[in-house]
Amino acid sequence: MTRAEADSLVEVLDLDRIETNIFRGWSWHTAPTRVFGGHVAAQALIAAGRTVAPDRPVHSLHAYFLLPGDPSSPIIYDVDLIRDGRSFTTRRVVAIQHGRAIFHLSASFQRVTDGPEHQSPVPPSPPPEELPASLPEELPEWSLPNGGSIEPFFSRYLDVRLAPTEGADGSVQQPVWSSHGEPHSPHQRMWFRARGTLPADPLYHVCAVTYASDLRLITTTLLPHRSTDGRTISLASLDHAMWFHRPFRADEWLLYIQDSPSAAGSRGFARGEIYTADGRLVVSVAQEGLMRVHS
């Protein structure tokens, strides 16, 4: 059972509440062969947030991808009300399809409190207005059951502009999408924003960024291992963590800085920092993924 294509991220995030703490989310018939990790993470977070008082924004989440999601079936989100303290609220969410858990998320929410502040400075990057608005020609298209093809699934919901990075030798590296080619420094940068205008509710904005945070991040681990000998490396996300430092709007430009400090034991580790256009660090991200080499 599928629902017609969602026209905006708001439609993706608007879950059906089928019991007090149980929600149903949808995929769509033009999704890839598995549910995008950011999709299920964003829906799980909005399910958790719908059980928390609005004066307690989320400050962190930690999640595990257990099984590939089936885009042809709805996803059930079962929210466990772990704790409601004086300052912090904790929720655990299990995403279920076909009677099996496919995803697990724990999220912590905090009453807004003032305290000391500092942050890393934003790295220099060309503004999004100076970067190409169209997707690169080498970006692979998803195959549809009817044999056709579509634009990448995220382009319906996100405006993405890829930015150049700096190599280890100080040279400028142009962005890449393909796993084939010369090795590349494990750094990527992109600007993104949700298409259209999101509602004022801050939960939509953190969930929109949760959706976008899974885009390209794990592929950063692949860049130093690009080759031209026909060898390929498949990637699968294992876990995902996010920390939300400051308020922001996801329908305004955000700069996503990505790097990978390590790959070992068939696992690659990637980190991300998300800044507003005026240089505020608003989100930090970490992800580990499985890397399998195929000759």
From TrEMBL:
Domain (Acyl-CoA thioesterase-like N-terminal HotDog) ranges: 28-110
Record has Hydrolase as a keyword: yes
Low complexity: bias regions: 131-141
Entry keyword set: Hydrolase
CDD domains membership: Thioesterase_II_repeat1, Thioesterase_II_repeat2
Composition skew (Pro residues), residue ranges: 121-130
One Pfam family recorded for the sequence: Acyl_CoA_thio
Superkingdom: Bacteria
Start and end residues of each stretch annotated as Disordered: 113-141
Gene3D superfamilies recorded: Acyl-CoA thioesterase, double hotdog domain
Domain Acyl-CoA thioesterase 2 C-terminal: 181-290
InterPro entries named in the record: Acyl-CoA_hotdog, Acyl_CoA_thio, HotDog_dom_sf, TesB_ACOT8-like_N, TesB_C
Record-linked SUPFAM superfamilies: Thioesterase/thiol ester dehydrase-isomerase
Family: Belongs to the C/M/P thioester hydrolase family.
Protein name per Swiss-Prot or TrEMBL: Acyl-CoA thioesterase
Organism: Protofrankia coriariae
High-level lineage: Bacteria, Bacillati, Actinomycetota, Actinomycetes, Frankiales
